[in-house]
Amino acid sequence: MIYTYAYPRPAVTVDIIVTKYVKDSIQILLIERKNQPFKNQWALPGGFVDIDEEIEDAAYRELKEETSIWDIKLNQFRTFGKPGRDPRGRTISIIYFGQIENENQKIEAGDDAKNLKWFSIDELPELAFDHFHIIKSFLKQKSDT
Fold first, then answer.
1. Whole-model pTM?
2. Which domains are present in the chain?
3. What confidence category does residue 102 fall into, taking pLDDT thresholds of 50, 70 and 90?
4. Of 34, 102, 124, 130, whose CB count within 10 A is highest?
């Protein structure tokens, strides 16, 4: 039996901040979105958690599908859930982060990603959703520790 709720429930997503160091500067990997919303805009890799999937598994799956990255340790950063952050409806996103240590790892756009690019944290493009706020929050916490 499927239980139905009288109240709408939010969707849950994962977004992943992937960084690397280049000459004492932090770079972050962004995807160019292939689909709406925010088609052709830059965003963090990520996507929806499947109904029968562990949240951490979703982060690794989405990262691999969109970037081909699999050899990375991810840690949970924070959860973002401000109403209106996603035009598709009420969405709560759990943010993970990891740092590329293996420069030989193949990085290739796939699934919902049209393109991939490393950006200096000082030269970020206009970002989809609330991803600029997420990245700034991450960098602030990183500098405070």
1. 0.91
2. 11-144 (3.90.79.10)
3. low
4. 130
